[in-house]
Amino acid sequence: MKVGIVCYPTYGGSGVVATELGKSLAKKGHEIHFITYSQPTRLDFFNPNLYYHEVSVKSYPLFQYPPYELALASKMVDVVLNEKLDLLHVHYAVPHASAAYMAQQILKTKGCEIPFITTLHGTDITIVGKDATNEPVVTFSINKSDGVTAVSQDLKNDTLEHFDISVPIEVIPNFIDLERFKKQPKEHFKKAICPNDEKLVVHTSNFRKVKRVDDVLKVFCEVRKVVPSKLLLIGDGPERKKMEDMARDICTEDIRFLGKLEAVEEVLSVSDLFLMTSEKESFGLAALEAMACEVPVISSNAGGLPELNNEGKSGYVCEIGDVDTMVKRAIHILDNKNLSTFKKGALARAKEFDVNNVLPMYESFYQSVLEKH
Ligand code: GMT
Fold it and tell me: What is the pTM of this model?
């Protein structure tokens, strides 16, 4: 198949999923064309089946907001016609689904019929999409999609609850490349970070309010009173400065902010516990990456997290904001009597999301959409 993939090419989970999906499809022989405003972060190597088409937006003094959606739709038209694509697959509904619909209608006038699939990732529904400023367009473009997928059952339920949806939504969970995300022998890192054999707790996110990073700090500060441990915070975003100030006030010497890291799996390889305390989380890809590196997870019960984190096996699922329970569960997991069992449980759970299991779901979904179109 020749597929055009549209996504946000930056650090966000939806862009990572889209890029990894494209890479895996290309490995299986499909021809994949990324249509984005910059080179996707994880697409920095050569594969004859992978193409990258850059969307550039012209500025003009009249525009306070340059019209990205028009440039994207125009680029989709251009790439579909010139590369003879079979299918468009857009990740994150806003504004990719409406741009795809516009491209599809333009292509029709040129005698080219192409279906498009929209994958819902989370905040395109739970925050940005359902806001009154966007909702009518998001509802319309989901209903006009030839296929719709959501990354968890919870996200599907949320979409049906908040939007007037008249098309079926298929749940296809996110996935993990176990060749990349696996425990690596990086003991020298552990020694450098935890010289006295402390336990290593880790959190990665984009430091937005919905991640409740303050809960991560609160949990860690209680845990370290009982279990000698260190906390690494990976990523960057609007709340980081506030979190650095908070860390300074509470227990700074055991907390380090590392900023954005490309090879996050190297740090995960020496970690003992991952904290994901989010208020909203449609899937929790960062937690899956941790599990694949044999790191148990304490998560909140937001969104799709209970579908990922296997209670009592890969970690524990706690009420959003229930710091006391998170502390108790963390201390339990970090106990040497329990830790290796939880590490095995985390890996076992991650294996269920192996890209090799999930990729065929996308391929057969593509096939069914093409047949219906
Ligand atoms: O977590 C974010 O804020 C980034 C966001 C995105 O769109 O890139 O992530 C969403 O999509 C990921 C991939 O499907 C999911 O793993 C995240 O759970 C989801 N984030 C939220 O729902 C908040």
Answer: 0.95
